[in-house]
Amino acid sequence: MTGKGGTGKTTVAAALALALAAGGKRVLLCEVEGRQGIASVFDVAPLPYDERRVAVAPDGGQVWALAIDAEAAFLEYLQIFYHLGRAGKLLDKFGVVDFATTIAPGARDVLLTGKVYEAARRRKHERPVYDAIVLDAPPTGRVGRFLNVNSDVAGIAKVGPIRNQATSIMDFLRSPQTRVQLVSSLEEMPVQEVLDSYDEMHDIGLAVGGIVVNFARESELTKTELANARNGRLDLQRIGSALKEAGINGGDSALAALEDEARQHAERVAIEAKQRRRLQDTGCPIVELPEVSEGVDLGTLYDFADRLRDCEAIS
Amino acid sequence: MARGDEQGRRRRSGDQAPGRGVRFRIGPFTGRLSDVTPLDIDALLDDHSVHIVVCCGSGGVGKTTTSAALGVRAAERGRRVVVLTIDPARRLAQSLGLEQLDNTPRPVRGVDTSTGGGLDAMMLDMKRTFDEVVEAHASPDKAEQIFANPFYQALSSSFAGTQEYMAMEKLSQLRTHLSGEPGRDGRWDLIVVDTPPSRSALDFLDAPERLSSFLDGRLIRILLAPARGPARVFTAGISVVTGVLSKILGGQMLRDVQTFVSAFDALFGGFRARAEQTYQVLKAPQTAFVVVASPDIDALREAAFFVERLEAEGMPLAGLVLNRVTDGATGGISAQAALAGAERLDDERLTAALLRLHARRLERAARERAVRRRFAGAHPGVRTATIPALPTDVHDLEALREIGDLLIA
To answer: At A202, which helix (H) or strand (E)?
Structure first.
């Protein structure tokens, strides 16, 4: 799940996890940016580097969450693949851990995607531990670099374990098992970034599943009323008398305020229609989630999950 | 897997996203918006002792647009400005009406230069910047060797994290053209920096320290060991670590990394010196940090984190720019009255709809004021300028000018 900052990526990722868990499935929701965004949307205490159940979906499904920490993932990786418990400490002493997680460009992304891959492949009693994994990925500006890092690593490591690991992760990300979901509001820049990402994903060989339009506003006004509002041709006299009828005596200033707000609203609606068309031109399935004026809470998440369930855009 | 390594934690403190640091005080602190001192943007831009303005903030708050608007306004008030943006999405190019921005500052057409100012804009191309560093500071042979190294190629063009180092390098380069100090050509007298879209927008500030911790650390000795010859005494620790690295990376990749590090060895020093110098300049009074946010809880939490970090580092904070603030003017109708009125209007659908629109706007404005009060309570001294939410998107010079005007209003 990716999108420009501020488009509600984490909220949509959480709702998608709930939607996928519905019907008794077990879903892991991961975050990789250390923001504790998942804890914040589910209103739970900050997540440690440990898979925790954060929500129950309709019909008995479960959403588990993991805030992936590059450093912990690195030490875990050393332990699992190389049984390097003590050497891990030595590596830390020599600055290798710090180097791999904060200093060396790229290494961090290798560790983060590697952990997601590990969780996706993990099996217990002959079956996968998780039916689905939702990754709240970095925003559009950085997601290409993030998802493609293993391809770059495979390009520079001709042989050896890291090459094998990088190649497997990349194969997995490019397989039909992985889908990139794009989130956008109906503003120009977020839409532009989603369109750029759409092309970028294609270039690096990742499949885009669909686009989620967030904060979609529905207008109560008809097309004609919107046009009139934009052109300053609203029937102010009629609105004025209706206000009196409703017991609102704000005079001319009230009327002027409503007229101005109507114009701004109509302009916004026109822009949104244009941006919606740009997204539709991709031919990609689109699902819209409404703007929630009172702010997103847990109830909203379940409502969003319902809207995302069984919809083509998140297949 | 808990690590009790306090020192390690501290070293990586800049790495902490706001959620982890939990330094945004939520609780009894609340302020009054009327007590918030306005941030005087014109005074800031007219202050000729300020040579660098750094805009930071979380993604999607209008940071790039704000940087561009500050650049345009400063230029039209007589400053010779260069705006540096570090963003792969070419957003600045869009808003400045430029077809493309490459690694070289390009003049922005249409800016009013009658007061003697001017505006150039550039977008960081991290690969080209990296290549230029190599070309400028390595012998042709060495440069050739570095360019051919597969590790360098991936490092300079693909890997996340390189951007922060290159942003610092580019800023160092631009500084050499600033007026007011000896030996400079004085092409510009103000640099406006739009920080990289990092995990944390302050990653960029941590770049010099990270580089130093690597250069002063023990790892580099291991990576340089083959180049410096086997005559060096190997401690048991070093050979274990080398063994592990070789096991993880494979012999070939480790050799490529080692070859790169030893070829680049001579360049690291200058690279670090420039970055550290720039870091010091960022702490000096000639710099002003502008934190950009939108009036929602997440963006303000991040803004709070920046403000505290800048304070802790002794970096000069000019203030906060709040973007997309909902205009809460009532026109004489309160939200409650509007909703009640809409209920009563069965046949007047349009008027009822307009009243509901009005109520929603006021409710949104009230929510924004609540989170702003919380921020103001925790950070009482932070000067603030606001930009009202615009009905249209910003993508030309005229709109950037309008934003500049709104910042002053």
So the answer is: helix A188-203
Residues of A in Cβ contact (< 8 Å) with B251: 159-160
For the record, the structure tokens of B319 come out as 């203030």
Sequence length of chain A is 315
* Cα A250 to Cα A241, B267, B378, distances in angstroms: 11, 70, 37
* Nearest C-alpha neighbor of A226 from the set B358, B353, B390, B329: B353
- CB neighbours (10 Å) of residue A306? 15
- Report the complex ipTM: 0.89
Q: Do the beta carbons of residue A13 and residue A29 sit within 8 Å?
A: yes
pLDDT of amino acid B191: 97
The Cα–Cα gap between B272 and B210 comes to 10
Helix (H) or strand (E) holding A163: helix A161-174
Beta carbons of B299 and B57 less than 8 angstroms apart: yes
How many angstroms away from the CA of B302 is the closest CA of chain A? 10
Q: Which two tokens stand for residue A156?
A: 């520079």
- Where is A284: in which H helix or E strand? none
Which letter, b or e, does each residue of A284-294 get, where b requires 16 or more Cβ atoms within 10 Å of its Cβ? bebbbbebbee
Interface of A with B in 74-133 (CB under 8 A): 75-76, 78, 82, 84, 87, 90-99, 101-106, 108-109
Return the structure tokens found at A282: 């991709």
Three-state DSSP at B162 gives helix
Q: Please write the tens of the pLDDT for every residue from B159-172.
A: 888 888 999 999 99
Q: Do A242 and B351 touch (CB under 8 A)?
A: yes
Rounded alpha-carbon distances, angstroms, from residue A276 to A28, A191, A312, B401: 31, 8, 17, 27
By the CB < 8 Å criterion, does A256 face chain B? Answer: yes
Rounded distance between C-alpha atoms, residue A206 and residue B163, angstroms = 24
Q: What is the mean pLDDT of residues B113-137?
A: 93
Q: Is A155 on the interface with B (CB under 8 A)?
A: yes
Helix A107-121 crosses helix A70-82 at what angle (to 10 degrees)? 60
Hey, which bits of B137-293 come out as E strands?
190-194, 287-293
Of A6, A75, A293, the CB nearest to B61: A6
B278 touches chain A (CB under 8 A): no
Looking at the partner chain, which of B20, B158, B349 has a beta carbon nearest the beta carbon of A145? B158
CB pairs under 8 A between A and B: 276
Lowest mean pLDDT, pick from A14-18, A147-151, B201-205, B404-408 = B201-205
Q: Global pTM?
A: 0.90
β-partners of residue A183 are A3, A212
Q: Which residues on adjacent β-strands are paired with residue B313?
A: none
Tokens (6 digits) for A285: 């399935």
Task: Tell me what the mean pLDDT of segment B285-308 comes to.
Answer: 93
